[in-house]
Inverse folding.
């Protein structure tokens, strides 16, 4: 159910458009809030705003609302835009004001019914800068920052080599949820925002919970909430949770239940916040077989531009599949391939695939041992982690 | 200022000349694509790095000076 405009304005006050704060005050407020992007990379939003505001190009800047959400295990941006589209658009308008942009582009998956809703909604309200919708092809890497810039400037939805970075082209690419936080920071201030969360990951976040849990879905939590608290009601015999999306990392359960969902703590645990998705793998599933499926899917989602991704990801998927079948001899080769893959693509797509595979070898080490002892996987052929985007 | 050798991963076609001309820094993976030990080029390897960048048939190598 969409929050109607009048309710939204009653709850949050203030029209969109030039906020009571000046452009620089808004950037300072976002910097002081410590807000970090919720689209995957966790980059400080204030620093990004500052960089785009400093851009002096031939054309004014553009604010791009990234609502592609190509992570199959994430549904938070879809849920947010379904319920509170005005909040996201307020954030985009404020960001446009801060970086002196003359247009806002909302990037949505091609064919997403949200497009109709947003078109209707945009017609009901006057915006200080024009807002356009941009359908984006269904491909995992099409929502990557440089791929969106490429799509908007040339029509080609594939990542590009950097530099130039998007900010150097006058493009502020920001995740939909991140912009909703910007709107709230503008209204309530950075101290209000910092009252929740941790010093390193302030504020709240939307998490998508799925798999062997009692109530799958999207909820808002304070950043830094322990994983176990978010997963209350999960299958007590579950032995792993996939954190941050399918290009994220597996963490073992129950031991990872105490790990806070915050950037620093997750990095220390060998994972990353990513898009804030948690997928619980139940006891009757093989994490290695699931990871083989995931890496196979990610290999197919490559833009096909960089050799290490084009050749490396299918090879890693093959190795994982053979490991599941009990072929021990692939293990040294797989470890070598995982070690040399990160950092060797134009974008981070291969890094994510290598990270999830490496985490599987660690978290499912007991399964690796069993397969190495010649016992192939009894759960082979099953599918648990959903791999089709909505 | 230090010198850095940057690989344009999209332009690179894995011909492998860089690994031949600058083996101290560049290794090849099993498909012939470069694995860089580091992107910082020490002074004594600067000439070789220049040669590698100039020889790349895909124009995928760039020697830059960065602070």
């Amino acid at each position: 159910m969409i929050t109607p405009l009048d309710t939204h304005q009653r709850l949050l006050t203030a029209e969109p458009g030039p906020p009571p704060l000046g452009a620089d005050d808004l950037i300072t407020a976002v910097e002081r809030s410590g807000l970090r992007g919720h689209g995957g990379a966790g980059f400080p939003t204030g620093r990004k705003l500052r960089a785009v505001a400093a851009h002096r190009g031939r054309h004014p800047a553009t604010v791009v609302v990234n609502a592609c959400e190509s992570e199959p295990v994430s549904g938070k941006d879809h849920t947010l835009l379904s319920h509170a589209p005005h909040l996201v658009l307020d954030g985009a308008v404020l960001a446009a004001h801060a970086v002196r942009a003359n247009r806002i582009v909302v990037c949505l998956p091609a064919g997403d019914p949200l497009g109709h809703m947003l078109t209707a909604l945009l017609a009901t309200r006057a915006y200080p800068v024009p807002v356009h919708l941009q359908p984006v092809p269904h491909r995992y890497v099409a929502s990557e920052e440089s791929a969106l810039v490429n799509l908007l400037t040339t029509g080609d939805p594939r990542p590009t080599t950097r530099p130039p970075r998007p900010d150097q082209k006058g493009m502020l690419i920001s995740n939909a949820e991140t912009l909703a936080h910007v709107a709230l920071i503008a209204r309530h201030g950075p101290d209000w925002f910092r009252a929740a969360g941790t010093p390193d990951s302030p504020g709240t976040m939307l998490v998508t919970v799925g798999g062997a849990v009692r109530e799958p879905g999207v909820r808002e939590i304070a950043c830094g909430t322990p994983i176990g608290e978010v997963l209350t009601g999960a299958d007590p015999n579950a032995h792993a949770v996939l954190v941050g999306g399918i290009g994220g990392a597996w963490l073992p359960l129950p031991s990872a239940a105490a790990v806070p969902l915050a950037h620093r703590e997750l990095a220390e645990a060998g994972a990353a916040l990513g898009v804030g998705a948690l997928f619980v793998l139940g006891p009757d599933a093989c994490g290695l077989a699931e990871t083989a499926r995931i890496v196979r899917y990610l290999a197919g989602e490559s833009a096909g531009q960089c050799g290490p991704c084009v050749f490396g990801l299918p090879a890693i998927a093959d190795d994982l599949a053979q490991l599941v079948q009990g072929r021990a001899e692939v293990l040294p080769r797989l470890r070598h391939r995982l070690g040399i893959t990160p950092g060797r693509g134009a974008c981070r797509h291969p890094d994510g695939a290598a990270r999830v595979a490496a985490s599987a070898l660690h978290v499912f080490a007991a399964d690796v041992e069993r397969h190495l002892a010649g016992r192939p996987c009894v759960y082979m052929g099953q599918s648990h982690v959903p791999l089709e985007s909505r | 200022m230090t010198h850095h050798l940057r690989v344009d991963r999209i332009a690179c076609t894995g011909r492998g000349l860089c690994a031949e001309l600058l083996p101290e820094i560049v290794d090849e993976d099993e498909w012939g694509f470069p694995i860089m030990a580091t992107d910082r080029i020490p002074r004594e390897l600067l000439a070789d790095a220049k040669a590698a960048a100039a020889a790349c048939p895909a124009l995928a190598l760039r020697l830059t000076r960065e602070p």
In short: The domain at 2-62 of chain B is CATH 3.30.70.20 (Alpha-Beta Plaits). The interface with chain A takes residues 8-14, 29-33, 35 of chain B (CB under 8 Å). Residues 15 and 27 of chain B are 12 Å apart (CA to CA). Chain B has a mean pLDDT of 95.
